[in-house]
Amino acid sequence: MPHATPDAAAAAAAGAAIAAPLSPRRRQLLDAALHVIADEGLKGLTHRAVDRRAGLPEGSCSAYWRTRNALQAALTEYVAAELLTDVDQLTDRITQCDGDERKVEETLALFLRWLDQRELLVARLELTMAATRDADLRVLLVDHRSRLVEIVANIMTAAGHDHGPARAEALVASYDGILLAGLLHPVEGRREFLVRSLELLSAAMAGPDGE
């Protein structure tokens, strides 16, 4: 039987740990890590920087995640779980909405909150870029994306727009692009940009399937 690489083992251990309910201290450290990435990029993510940001004694972060790879894997799982929780809650609200206009408003509210509290989005973008060079991170993010596509596909089916997973995946990719563009827009212009983009996207995705 082949042995797991140290990085793969660290990622698996981090994934197992994060799957359980987080202790207050782990959540404090991972929240601090989000802010470190938002301010300094992924290159600034060190155990010492996380400890400083969390206001904890040096060595606190490394006591939970011994290597930087383990910390990155745990943070990836944390970001994915937080975003999926938001999307699951959005799904619950959307299924109770009558009309596409209300659904767009609910999605807009979530996107605006994400953009106002940008740490999750920035961390996800940084980790996604890192995953293009790191097979273990890529596995974690692919699993996360598959879950997002599944959620969106279920929403489309419930709305009578069952066009299969290909269209749902395209919609998830489009949302990613809108959020990235939203980060680049001035704060005062974000709502108008998001409303316009979501309405256009909703109209386009509700059209006949081109396959």
Write up what this structure looks like.
It holds the Pfam family TetR_C_31. Residues 23-83 form the HTH tetR-type domain. This is TetR/AcrR family transcriptional regulator. Keywords: DNA-binding. It is a single chain. This protein has helices spanning 6-19, 24-40, 47-54, 60-64, 68-95, 100-116, 119-131, 135-158, 165-184, 190-205. Helix 6 packs across helix 10 and helix 7 packs across helix 8. The protein has a single domain (6-205), classed as Orthogonal Bundle (Tetracycline Repressor, domain 2), CATH 1.10.357. It is mostly helical.
Which structural class is indicated by helix and strand composition? mainly alpha
CATH architecture title: Orthogonal Bundle
Radius of gyration: 19 Å
Which CATH C-level class is it?
A: Mainly Alpha
As a percent range, the share of helical residues equals over 70%
> Main β-sheet, in a few words?
none
Report, as a whole number of angstroms, the end-to-end distance. 43 Å
Which percent band covers the strand fraction?
A: under 5%
Overall shape = elongated
Task: Write down how many β-strands occur, each being a DSSP E stretch of 2 or more residues.
Answer: 0
Counted up, domains total: 1
What is the H level of CATH, i.e. the homologous superfamily? Tetracycline Repressor, domain 2
Helical run tally: 10
Low-confidence stretches: 1-19
SSE succession: HHHHHHHHHH
Mean pLDDT: 83
Write the CATH fold name. Tetracycline Repressor, domain 2
Organism: Nocardioides hankookensis
Keywords: DNA-binding
Pfam family, one: TetR_C_31
Protein name: TetR/AcrR family transcriptional regulator
